[in-house]
Amino acid sequence: MSEETETVDHGGRPCPMCGEPMYHRHCKYVCPQHGVVFDCADTFY
């Protein structure tokens, strides 16, 4: 039995557009409402 493991952090940075906690996936911050908001190329606040 194989399980796919993915690093997901709930409750991280708030989305700058709606304030929802974003998921941290690999090198991206993903808002459940707006999709990818930040990635590695972006500067973070």
From TrEMBL:
InterPro entries in the record: HVO_2523-like (IPR049701)
Organism the protein comes from: Halobium salinum
Protein name as it appears in the record: HVO_2523 family zinc finger protein
Top-level taxon: Archaea
